[in-house]
Structure prediction request, 306 residues.
Amino acid sequence: MTVAENLPRSVTVRVPAKINLHLAVGRRRPDGFHPLVTLYQAISLYDDVTVTDNGSWGVYVNDSGETAGVPRDATNIAVRAGRLLADHHGIEAAVDISLLKGIPVAGGMAGGSADAAGTLVALDRLWDLQTSDEDLLELAAQLGSDVPFALLGGTALGTGRGERVEPIEDRRSWWWLVLPSEKGLSTPEVYCEFDRIHPEAPTELDESVELRERLGSEDPVDLGRFLRNDLQEAALTLRPDLVETFQRVREAGDAAAMLSGSGPTVIVPVSVQDRAVELRAALLVAGIPVVHIATGPVAGAHVVEY
Ligand code: C5P
Prediction:
């Protein structure tokens, strides 16, 4: 198959960051991954992924101190996503992929997964493939545990290794303060530390039944009551400096902080916007260098320009 001549030459897709409101982790499986029961939420920090026709695969990333570690070659997960979609449809074509990164890099907010999801959606449109949702989710799962959720957005229950996603009705929105860390954390290293701390973690997680029941019975859902992150202790062991960040949040605003996914980004749930603005100011005064305000849930990967 060849790509038609008169199709758009460039497409931009916007993809949100994810947080895990609830992250229950079980014992490492024989395939190396951990069983999860998680409540994902997409929040309003975004990467923009632009794909442009070209004869070969190229990756361009906005330059900032933060993006220095993002691969600029074919090892970037966005290129792997593009190649996977091309192979799936038997297409021989290649594109330039430009990443404008607003999601903290290596921050536990699935920025790389967002870029993979964005590339799938952008190329599906650029090449007019009309891939079914089912196939897109299946390809996404091959790329990474968090990639299917980046397609979906909103709030969702994640099971398996996180790749099986089920939308949850959004019954209220939240404000989130997002405190990125200057240095990233490696997700595999955090999981290894989790194994060390919890050698007896359960092989099967039955929280999904309980969580589903609780979600179904609350009206409106008070997501604050679901906050839990089993990776937090492991991440704090690897990065004891984060304890100070938690302390500053407690002191500055009497607020509850939690780690986003495998960290090191720290997030603080807030019910109303005024409180978010006030707390952000207090945290900056307390010496936290960067505090973003975000809201969630928001939509998953969507085309913004073509
Ligand atoms: O799926 P993804 O490629 O994003 O995962 C990155 C790494 O995180 C995996 O190689 C694995 O070490 C760890 N991981 C895990 N269990 C999961 C998800 C990720 O151990 N459920």
